[in-house]
């Protein structure tokens, strides 16, 4: 690494970290996983005067459930979520589907979810999931703690509501009910590229009718998006019988939601290998396929629940 000269602080507590960040006379950066920061410092596109390494702060690596909320500490690494059992229920399944799209194993072993929220890259999988699920970001400074909803947190590429003197200590997600189906699909040029487009979905279908839908869009604007218009178009629609997402009729609610997401919710930015028209087409296709995946996931969960109830009833009968 060939960065510009910088000072280096290694706090042992959150209080020490925010005290170092509170020195507003210097440009500061927080080092957690460093997967984005180190590269930018190497290229000298970022030239901090002080780097605050939070890896020695006890407790920031904790992942836990408090009531109906999952709290992900600032030092919880991406790789933790590769196991669907790391987080209860459908939320764990959604995280497991999404995380394998993040770079490659060495990166996932060091990079952190909170670091993704701090960096705020438009192609971040975690940021779009957090926006879709109404996650909260915990921020600490010397004055205390505040919480910002993900929908209000992102201001554009690399720009957020976090102040320079604040430290992200955790991201909080509401747990998803057992009757929620989840899906995540990503499209990119090569395995190691950022997503050109990706979609996260959480879907609830009751008696064949869609009662709730959440859709997160990755790299479909200058910040992560929740596809509100597409979600509204789904509420009250009949999900129908299982359909292959690759052969979905144009009149199906999932196909219609894809078109709405592409034209009304998204504001794609052209890239060297993906112009705006290409990205809108990709959004429409990925939204309908991800919704199909979420619907299949919910049906599978319902079948497993029914099988478990049936097995339990049989066991009770055997003991009579």
TrEMBL record:
Chain positions covered by the region annotation Disordered: 297-320
Matching InterPro entries: CO_DH_flav_C (IPR005107), CO_DH_flav_C_dom_sf (IPR036683), Diverse_Substr_Oxidored (IPR051312), FAD-bd_PCMH (IPR016166), FAD-bd_PCMH-like_sf (IPR036318), FAD-bd_PCMH_sub1 (IPR016167), FAD-bd_PCMH_sub2 (IPR016169), Mopterin_DH_FAD-bd (IPR002346)
Domain of life: Bacteria
Domain FAD-binding PCMH-type: 1-178
EC number of the protein: 1.2.7.4
GO molecular function: anaerobic carbon-monoxide dehydrogenase activity; FAD binding
Keywords on record: FAD, Flavoprotein, Oxidoreductase
Broad EC category: oxidoreductase
Classification via PROSITE patterns: FAD_PCMH
Record protein name field: Carbon-monoxide dehydrogenase medium subunit
Organism of provenance: Kitasatospora kifunensis
